[in-house]
């Protein structure tokens, strides 16, 4: 039997990014060792706000060619207190996932054992969602501009771009994902009452694509009403698809409802597999806790498990999540989950659980 070797580009970047990526690599190495049928070869890149402040650029000119040589990308977080957020986000994260056509952003949420939802009536198992976010266009297409900047009569535009091709491909992806889950239930979210062009096209395209998936039950929510349903009836939802902006907001809400932003994973996928996909925690660089050693590494562990599944190591991904759940259940949790463990203690416990079980 030949052993698969996966080449992983790691980009820890800013704030708590390096802390959680170090933790993520430790558990990935442990699971590869335990399984024995594959290995992971990590190459670290120093692309970050520090690099930007020194050289004027987050990325070298050839970053896409460089990244295309890898099987996957493990990303920390970008953002520094002394760099405007739109510069850091567009300079690094969007400069990777847009050109690499990682058009499907997948965000799973559930309540892990040993943790609590802030919803008092919501128990483990009653909140088990996967949010699919259109990740290539929409409100984050980057079309817009400012004229007469700083003057009284300044005008600024931020134009949303919706294409039939991109809506159709994300709809197909979401239906396939919904179909693969036991409930086969897809809720699509738009705002087609107030926004009468792009959002109405979304509704039309999704309804067309739904005909290819007669076994999937579909329903529709307006985004404002969706926030209410997520809070009051979490058990009524399973797979959710929405635009870049709407799903960005809904997935932060989802993470909070499941207990903490510190557990929530993200996969930025190119479903065509022409380009490597990128895996990252949902959270940002968290300046308020940087360097304190208390960042929750669970979001990075969960996204590492998603990465293994995408690479074809489904069993390793599932085993990794079982170890994370066992450690949560044993109460070894960071402060954001009501515990007192450090990043290193949680990481050591997960590594020990992987090697033990
Ligand atoms: P944030 O996610 O960094 O932090 C929000 C709150 O959650 C903070 O109180 C933080 O301490 C806490 N938190 C986040 N991750 C945690 C973890 N793993 N364990 C424990 N607590 C955690 O969001 P914020 O403060 O709005 O943004 C900080 C910077 O990060 C900004 O520059 C922002 O642009 C950037 N950002 C980057 C993202 C990315 O790289 N994908 C995503 C979101 C924000
Ligand atoms: Mg966000």
From TrEMBL:
<dbReference type="GO" id="GO:0000287">
    <property type="term" value="F:magnesium ion binding"/>
</dbReference>
<dbReference type="GO" id="GO:0046553">
    <property type="term" value="F:D-malate dehydrogenase (decarboxylating) (NAD+) activity"/>
</dbReference>
<dbReference type="InterPro" id="IPR050501">
    <property type="entry name" value="ICDH/IPMDH"/>
</dbReference>
<keyword id="KW-0520">NAD</keyword>
<dbReference type="GO" id="GO:0051287">
    <property type="term" value="F:NAD binding"/>
</dbReference>
<keyword id="KW-0460">Magnesium</keyword>
<keyword id="KW-0464">Manganese</keyword>
<dbReference type="Pfam" id="PF00180">
    <property type="entry name" value="Iso_dh"/>
</dbReference>
<dbReference type="InterPro" id="IPR011829">
    <property type="entry name" value="TTC_DH"/>
</dbReference>
<keyword id="KW-0560">Oxidoreductase</keyword>
<dbReference type="InterPro" id="IPR024084">
    <property type="entry name" value="IsoPropMal-DH-like_dom"/>
</dbReference>
<dbReference type="InterPro" id="IPR019818">
    <property type="entry name" value="IsoCit/isopropylmalate_DH_CS"/>
</dbReference>
<protein>
    <recommendedName>
        <fullName>D-malate dehydrogenase (decarboxylating)</fullName>
        <ecNumber>1.1.1.83</ecNumber>
    </recommendedName>
</protein>
<comment type="similarity">
    <text>Belongs to the isocitrate and isopropylmalate dehydrogenases family.</text>
</comment>
<feature type="domain" description="Isopropylmalate dehydrogenase-like">
    <location>
        <begin position="7"/>
        <end position="350"/>
    </location>
</feature>
<keyword id="KW-0479">Metal-binding</keyword>
